[in-house]
Design goal:
Shape of chain B: globular
Number of strands of chain A: 5
Radius of gyration of chain A: 13 Å
Strand content of chain A: 15-25%
Number of helices of chain B: 29
Distance between the termini of chain A: 12 Å
Structural class of chain B: alpha/beta
Helix content of chain B: 40-55%
Largest sheet of chain A: 5 strands, parallel
Distance between the termini of chain B: 43 Å
Shape of chain A: globular
Structural class of chain A: alpha/beta
Helix content of chain A: 25-40%
Largest interface: A-B, 24 and 31 residues
Strand content of chain B: 15-25%
Oligomer: heterodimer
Largest sheet of chain B: 5 strands, parallel
């Protein structure tokens, strides 16, 4: 079974790049959401294997989204990986929120999926 | 050669036919227009002779029909009348030439030969993909030697892909190329055509030639290497890379748009009026930029944007609510650098991740950096230039006053001067410096840089015939254009001139008409430069130096007549051919056009054939077609005459700029036995294939010429011997891994020999370099055996 990924990010270019590279390089099913709200809905109706979640978004930001996901019975077990363009020193703050990891947005698009594989132990 | 003769007079038809047969042509005869049309539809001809007055369907209508179906076969009209209306109507209908009857056999043969020659000269080399061969001159498609029948649209579609092998073609790009503005179809139509084309190809045995690029468009797949067992299938990453590249292109405008808040913030900070809100917007923008650059692996930009975001945030935090935020000089610098970085950033699927291709279209690394002198009193601008120039492999000297500029030039003569002609304290200083430089260094390229609207100046200068020195500048750039554009222009000017393909500048405010003309010009292998705003005319004229100008008569701001007049008043451009397009055709207007220097005009709405006739006639008159015909017909490379001319030009440039020049000479080992054993057809194919490989392996600005027989010559500007040898070796390696298929399963493995000679160490002119390269080649051959 192909892995299911839900990517929540308000930036369309980030969504397209990651969706494309994960679909083509790993044949995963990648669904995307442009806001925390939309992401929570999609996670409820079609629970993914992992959620990639942008921290800084307008409206419901990454941390608030994660908090909500953790309160909902359909989604509280889905692992979440934070994505951020913040400095590394800043990133540490987010590891205590219950996310699996915080990944920097400085990526090599071609090998990004391997980070996810390593983190998830797939 | 197969000719069609449509002539209703039996006696004349018989005489002409016999004479042509005696000359060795194969001739089909038809006695009226309709019969002629049946022949035209059924067979392919190399040339058609059409009588003008024919029963049922006259020659001019017939000619028009032929052109309407996109057929470029040479057409010679035969007319009994010497009235010029007939001739004009015939030429306008797309005929190439006409002969007045009765004519001598000798005149007729001469005209036929001339037309056939012209056709050969302009016919493009074959396009190939795997075992698929497309012949643009006959519009035929073959797979493994078997013809595949395609509709004209399908054919055009496939040709478009083959001509743009590595490009992702979006729906709109395809629409633009293949449909006229009169019948714009929907995206669904493109999809339907692609589907039918794929279906036909598949039926013929060609699979997976065109791939769909997710959400963007289509692309020609990379052809499978001819020897499949050794080379593994292309990794999936290639597709991903291509897709990523397409996404980058798609989002680039948006990413560039994000720079504005940053520019605003710097400007506001300099005025000490940076509000909290604007600073916060800039910080947010920096954050988004970090994200966008990061996911493409652009590390430098990512770090810069991150740093800037933090700096902006701490500046905001350190400023009380109702005070203005101040950016430190460091932050301002970071901001400037980030802007410069983003403006030039490229996601390249070839580059290794985490690296920006540092010089987008800059000179190759083998070339010594070009030295620029920038004369301007605007310090911010100078700083920006310094930063940007690094990425373009330019070294830069700056001068903020005329006297420092003169000192700088005395110390080191630059390759190019960028000059702001307006110095506030002395309005004439810039012009005087320009005049001085022009008289002392006539070959030094000078780009004039000004905040003033050039065309208005030009028009004013022209009508007042004021300052003559302005004509000394080699290009004129407005300060309003972006830094990368300036850099691109400079790089273009410093680049040796690539082989010629006629450039046509079209100025028309009607966008649909502009699109249509652009499409036509592209399809005739001309390079269109289209301008819809006449105010941008002069910049484009000077930047692109077109070979012909098409002007719309009626336009806002400046009409065609005014533009025509200023062109005619400028010594550099006064002989540029100008063709007008006009909806009005009153004799008085036409007369005015001619009086003001127009060479020709064409009435709107016009037909494709008409425009082609006008343009090519005009180009021919300025002897351009002779340049275009300097192509080796077999290989599509330059022929010897053109090759030597280009090499001599490069040698002159090298002398002037103290550059090196390398000449590579190549030939095929044991070529004669190939001809003897397999016939000249196979020999020709080998040479053609070699021509294709040479074109792929070398850049456009490199000279690639067939010197004769199986001997090829390559000229590399600013290249030392070591690098030239290396590039030649790469070519040899490429030939080694690319066996050339001949009949059936038989493949030929070519071995090439090469010799290299370099200016100035081996000689100062072409003959001596050639001799040295020839000796080296001879030695290479001798030692190999």
């Amino acid at each position: 079974m192909a892995k299911k990924i839900l990517l929540i990010d308000d930036e369309p270019d980030v969504r397209q790049v990651l969706q494309l590279t994960l679909e083509l390089e790993h044949q995963w099913q990648v669904d995307t959401a442009a806001s925390g709200q939309e992401g929570i809905q999609k996670a409820q109706t079609n629970p993914p294997d992992v959620i990639l979640l942008d921290i800084m978004m307008p409206g419901l930001d990454g941390v608030a989204t994660l908090n909500q996901l953790q309160t909902l019975p359909e989604t509280d077990n889905i692992p979440v990986i934070f994505l951020t363009a913040k400095l590394e020193t800043e990133q540490k703050r987010y590891t205590e929120t219950g996310a699996v990891a915080v990944l920097s947005k400085l990526i090599d698009p071609l090998t990004f999926g391997e980070n996810v594989i390593a983190l998830m132990g797939w | 050669m197969r000719l069609l003769l449509v002539e209703d007079d039996e006696v004349q038809a018989h005489t002409i036919k016999q004479a042509l047969i005696a000359q060795g042509y194969v001739v089909d005869g038809a006695a009226d227009g309709e019969e002629g049309w049946d022949f035209i539809e059924a067979f392919t001809y190399d040339l058609m002779l059409l009588d003008v007055s024919l029963p049922k369907l006259d020659g001019i209508t017939l000619c028009r029909r032929v052109r309407d179906r996109g057929d470029n076969v040479p057409i010679l009209l035969l007319t009994a009348r010497s009235s010029s209306t007939d001739k004009v109507a015939g030429l306008d209908a797309g005929a190439d030439d006409y002969v007045v009857k009765p004519c001598t056999g000798r005149e007729l043969f001469a005209r036929i030969r001339a037309l056939l020659r012209r056709r050969n000269a302009s016919s493009a080399p074959l396009l190939t993909w795997d075992k698929v061969t497309l012949d643009p001159s006959s519009r035929e498609l073959f797979y493994d030697g078997q013809p595949i029948a395609l509709s004209p649209k399908e054919y055009n579609l496939l040709e478009l892909f083959l001509r743009n092998p590595r490009r992702v073609l979006t729906h709109s790009a395809i629409l633009e190329h293949l449909w006229s503005f009169e019948d714009p179809p929907s995206e669904g139509t493109v999809r339907a055509h692609i589907k039918r084309l794929r279906h036909k190809l598949k039926k013929a045995g060609v699979t997976e030639m065109i791939e769909t690029i997710y959400g963007v468009g289509y692309r020609l797949k990379e052809a499978k290497p001819p020897s499949p067992p050794e080379i593994p299938a292309s990794p999936p990453q290639d597709t991903t890379k291509a897709n990523l590249q397409a996404i980058w292109e798609k989002f680039r405008p948006q990413i560039l748009g994000r720079l504005q808040p940053l520019r605003d913030a710097i400007a506001a900070s300099e005025r000490h009026s940076l509000s909290h809100d604007l600073a916060a917007t800039a910080a947010n923008t920096a954050h988004k930029l970090a994200g966008s650059l990061g996911i493409f692996g652009l590390k430098t930009g990512y770090s810069l944007a991150q740093t800037l975001e933090e700096e902006l945030k701490s500046a905001i935090a350190a400023t009380p609510e109702n005070h203005f935020v101040t950016l430190t000089p460091d932050s301002q610098q970071h901001c400037q650098t980030l802007i410069a970085f983003v403006e030039q950033a490229e996601y390249s699927s070839i580059s290794t991740p985490h690296k920006v291709r540092e010089s987008p279209t800059a000179a190759p690394l083998t070339r010594a950096p070009s030295h620029l002198l920038i004369v301007d009193d605007d310090c911010t601008l100078l700083q920006n230039f310094k930063t940007a120039a690094l990425n373009w492999n330019f070294t830069v000297a700056v001068a903020s006053s005329i006297s420092t500029a003169q000192n700088a030039i005395a110390q080191q003569l630059p390759d190019l001067v960028l000059l702001d002609i307006v110095f506030p304290d002395d309005p004439l200083a810039g012009l005087n410096l320009l005049a001085d430089l022009k008289s002392r260094y006539p070959h030094l390229p000078i780009v004039i840089f000004s905040a003033y609207d050039r065309l208005r100046d030009r028009v004013a200068a022209c009508s007042l015939s004021s300052h003559p020195h302005l004509q000394g500048g080699d290009a004129f750039l407005s300060k309003l254009i972006s830094l990368p554009e300036v850099m691109t222009t400079i790089a273009e000017m410093l680049k040796p001139i690539p082989p010629h393909r006629a450039k046509i500048l079209v100025v028309d405010d009607d966008l649909s008409s502009l699109d249509y003309i652009e499409q036509l010009l592209n399809s005739w292998e001309l390079t269109p430069i289209v301008v819809s705003d006449p105010r941008l005319f002069w910049e484009n004229l000077e930047t692109h130096a077109p070979d012909l100008l098409i002007l719309d008569y009626k336009m806002p701001y400046y009409d065609g007549l005014q533009l025509c007049r200023i062109v005619r008043n400028d010594p550099t451009w006064q002989s540029l051919p100008i063709v007008f397009i006009t909806a009005e055709t009153q004799p008085t207007l036409i007369q005015t056009l001619y009086q003001n220097g127009a060479d020709d005009y064409i009435a709107k709405p016009f037909r494709e054939a008409e425009l082609a006739t006008r343009i090519f006639n005009r180009l021919e008159r300025v002897k351009l077609l002779r340049d275009l015909a300097d192509t080796d017909v077999l290989t599509g490379l330059a022929n010897r005459r053109r090759g030597s001319r280009d090499i001599n030009r490069y040698l002159r440039l090298c002398q002037r700029h103290q550059q090196l020049f390398s000449l590579i000479m190549l030939d095929v080992n044991d070529f004669k036995p190939i001809n003897d054993r397999y016939g000249h057809g196979v020999g020709d194919r080998v040479l053609r294939q070699l021509g294709t490989i040479l074109q792929q392996q070398f850049r456009q600005e490199d000279i690639t010429a067939r010197w004769g027989g199986d001997e090829f010559v390559i000229g590399l500007y600013a290249t030392q011997k070591k690098d030239a040898t290396q590039r030649a070796q790469q070519l040899l390696d490429c030939i080694k891994t690319t066996p050339i298929p001949i009949a059936g399963q038989v493949q030929l493995q070519l071995v090439l020999s090469m010799g290299v000679a370099t200016y100035p160490e081996d000689g100062a002119d072409l003959p001596s370099l050639y001799a040295v390269a020839d000796t080296a080649l001879y030695h290479a051959k001798a030692t190999k055996v």
